[in-house]
Amino acid sequence: MSHDSHPLVMVVDDESAVVRLVARALEPAGYRVLTATSGPEAIRIVEGLDGPVALLLTDLEMPEMTGRSLALELRKSQLGLKVLYLTGHVDGLFGFSTLLEPHEAFVEKPISGPALLEAVALHLFGTLRAPNEPAK
Predict the structure, then answer these.
(1) Verdict on whether the full-model pTM lies above 0.85
(2) What stretches of the chain show up as alpha helix (H) in DSSP?
(3) Does the pLDDT value for residue 23 go beyond 80?
């Protein structure tokens, strides 16, 4: 199968357990996953790629760089990059949600594997299941 049918997702969270959990949920569904535990690390990884990243799935609040700053930086080379923010602070998002760019959305942590897969597929494809995701 071509790489195009397996979207590349960059997962970034300062908690390595969250990164592993997200990767374990996405990979069996047919996504190619790159992981990082900081914005600067994610930028270095993406700079080394020769193809597009379909989705940035990032924590909103991280110590070195916010998810928003990371998205802005990556969009300099990844035009049309879709972003799904993970946040445990949904109460503080009501003002923030009006600042979301096109192709941006957020999900609340903690999130179950099935709910995460639905959020990713909805954001990337407009459906609750990825076209190449195995049927349950």
Answers:
(1) yes
(2) 16-26, 39-47, 67-74, 93-97, 113-125
(3) yes
